[in-house]
């Protein structure tokens, strides 16, 4: 693969910037802060994209760092490259609101899906990590990152066993361990215990709700309450009617000043007595003989008094007895006078009694008969009226007795209604309790069903974990056999390169399984930490190149990108490295530099290159 050209619409400081690359060496020259690292990052972003961080991490991430300075321009660009005889154009929009990727195969004239298969084919399966640690050498970053250690082990293990990078034993083992951990985290250890507990609770609740007390008597109680209330309402209505009738009857008796049969009979007796007195007084007052007799007595008294006066006055001479006779005649005169007066007073008394009794009996007749006429018929009518009052009083007393009986029945029905209400409340409480138990029973059954699924899932997960353990055991056995030959390919490839890149100072190197690097001398293995920084930089370059070759295999070489990577090289080391690169690497090389010595050395060694000034 090789890069053809790029166009930046908006990326960091660049806006509407075009750059064309050629085969072989491409030297991008610019002073510090000219934008070399920006171009380097743009190429990587076009190949792998740039994700924006979240939260505080977004303040200093690549997305924010290379946000276009000119806000009017879009955060986007395109990169044209050639691979396998086909020219493809990658267009990316980095903006979070319009993020998009389009790939056009210009050779075939069609759009290609920007999927993993395309990038694996273009980049020989390189991930962004391996890209950053092999063919893309950033400023002062010749050493590999720690993440490269495990990835190199995968490459060596895969190439050593199958000759292909499709098989990734170490990554597969890590994946299986991760899957095992995920499966173990999914297992619910308390499911079986909870399942047993819930089954016991279900049996207990089923026994409780089967008890007779939970038999639903609510409808029967409500029917009984309804019947009692109907009877109570009927009795109350009858009692109310009876009360009204009694009240009316008592009002009649009270208006006639009667409070019972005795008072009525006493009143009748009194009326009969008054009527008898009336009749007696009337009969007595109607006797004329008493008046005549009184008159006779007055006449006799006057005659006797006259004779007495005459004898006393001597008008009637009777010898010597005239005075005695006159005195004796005074006594009958007085007697006749007193008799007349008595008879006259007795007549007046009878008349007064008649008036009094007549007034009383008229008042009685007028009150009860509406007519004050005095007669025997009226008296008979009064007697009949009193008999009616007596019958009314008897009826009232019977009604009052009936009312008292009804009150007793009403009180009994009220107690029965209260008992029904209490029973209904108890039934409602029992039904509420039953509903709660049924809800709990339903919940427990649902939980049991869910736990049964969990238990089944636990069994399935344990079976999968057992299978993963078996797979890991098998892979461990395979990995053990691979580990014995680990690093052979890497050591061989790196050693082939080290002599050329160091100018023959070192002829071979060794890399152990932890990527610890040793330089081979005739007497001992020298750790890389003991060599000079310039030599160390050369060795890391050789290691990167070795890894790049292992990754690319027989595929088309990928471009090598150097971003001020030779700062620690002296002129001689730089000359050796550039000459070695020109002879050993057939692919494209892009060198970003702020020094002119790379250009001078390439000119002096007659190494062709394409210069790009920014």
From TrEMBL:
InterPro entries: P-loop_NTPase, Rad50/SbcC_AAA. One of its GO terms (biological process) is double-strand break repair. One of its GO terms (molecular function) is ATP hydrolysis activity. The chain crosses the membrane at residues 292-316, 322-343. Signal peptide: none annotated. Keywords: Coiled coil, Membrane, Transmembrane, Transmembrane helix. Residues 6-246 form the Rad50/SbcC-type AAA domain. Residues 379-430 form a coiled coil. Pfam families: AAA_23 (PF13476). The keyword rRNA-binding does not apply. This is AAA family ATPase. It comes from Candidatus Lachnoclostridium pullistercoris.
């Amino acid at each position: 693969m090789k890069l053809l050209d790029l166009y930046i619409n908006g990326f960091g400081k660049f806006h509407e910037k075009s750059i064309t690359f050629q085969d072989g060496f491409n030297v991008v020259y610019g002073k510090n802060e000219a934008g070399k690292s920006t171009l380097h990052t743009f190429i990587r972003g076009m190949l792998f994209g740039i994700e924006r961080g979240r939260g505080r991490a977004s303040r200093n991430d690549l997305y924010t760092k290379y946000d276009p300075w000119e806000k009017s321009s879009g955060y986007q660009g395109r990169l044209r490259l050639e691979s396998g005889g086909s020219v493809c154009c990658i267009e990316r929009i980095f903006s979070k609101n319009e993020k998009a990727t389009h790939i056009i195969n210009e050779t075939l004239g069609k759009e290609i899906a920007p999927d993993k298969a395309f990038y694996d084919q273009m980049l020989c399966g390189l991930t962004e990590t391996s890209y950053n640690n092999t063919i893309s050498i950033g400023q002062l970053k010749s050493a590999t990152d720690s993440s490269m250690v495990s990835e190199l082990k995968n490459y060596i293990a895969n190439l050593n066993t199958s000759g292909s990078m499709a098989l990734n034993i170490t990554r597969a083992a890590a994946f299986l361990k991760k899957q095992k951990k995920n499966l173990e985290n999914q297992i619910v250890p308390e499911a079986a215990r909870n399942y047993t507990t819930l089954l016991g609770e279900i049996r207990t609740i089923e026994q409780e709700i089967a008890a007779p007390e939970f038999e639903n008597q609510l409808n029967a109680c409500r029917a009984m309450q309804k019947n009692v209330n109907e009877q109570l309402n009927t009795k109350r209505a009858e009692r109310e009617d009876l009360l009204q009738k009694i009240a009316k009857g008592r009002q009649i008796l009270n208006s006639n000043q009667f409070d019972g049969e005795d008072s009525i009979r006493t009143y009748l007796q009194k009326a009969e007595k008054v009527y008898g007195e009336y009749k007696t007084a009337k009969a007595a007052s109607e006797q004329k003989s008493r008046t005549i007799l009184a008159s006779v007595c007055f006449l006799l008294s006057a005659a006797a008094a006259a004779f007495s006066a005459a004898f006393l006055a001597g008008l009637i001479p009777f010898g010597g007895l005239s005075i005695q006779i006159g005195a004796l005649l005074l006594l009958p005169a007085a007697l006749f006078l007193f008799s007349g007066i008595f008879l006259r007073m007795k007549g007046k008394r009878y008349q007064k009694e008649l008036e009094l009794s007549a007034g009383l009996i008229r008042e009685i007749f007028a009150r009860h008969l509406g007519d004050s006429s005095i007669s025997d018929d009226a008296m008979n009518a009064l007697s009949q009226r009193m008999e009616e009052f007596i019958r009314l009083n008897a009826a009232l007393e019977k009604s009052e007795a009936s009312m008292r009986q009804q009150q007793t029945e009403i009180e009994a029905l009220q107690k029965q209604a209260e008992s029904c209400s209490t029973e209904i409340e108890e039934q409602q409480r029992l039904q509420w309790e039953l509903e709660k138990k049924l809800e709990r029973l339903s919940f427990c059954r649902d939980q049991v069903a869910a736990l049964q699924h969990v238990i089944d899932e636990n069994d399935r997960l344990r079976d999968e974990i057992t299978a993963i353990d078996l797979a890991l055991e098998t892979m461990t056995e395979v990995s053990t056999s691979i580990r014995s030959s680990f690093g052979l390919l890497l050591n061989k490839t790196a050693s082939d390169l080290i002599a050329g890149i160091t100018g023959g100072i070192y002829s071979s190197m060794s890399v152990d399984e932890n990527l610890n690097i040793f330089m081979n001398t005739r007497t001992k293995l020298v750790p890389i930490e003991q060599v000079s920084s310039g030599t160390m930089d050369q060795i890391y370059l050789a290691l990167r190149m070795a890894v790049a070759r292992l990754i690319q295999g027989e595929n088309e070489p990928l471009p090598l990108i150097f971003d001020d990577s030779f700062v620690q090289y002296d002129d001689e080391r730089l000359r050796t490295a550039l000459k070695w690169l020109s002879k050993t690497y057939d692919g494209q090389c892009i060198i970003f530099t702020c020094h002119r010595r790379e250009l001078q050395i390439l000119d002096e060694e007659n190494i062709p290159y394409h210069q790009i000034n920014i």
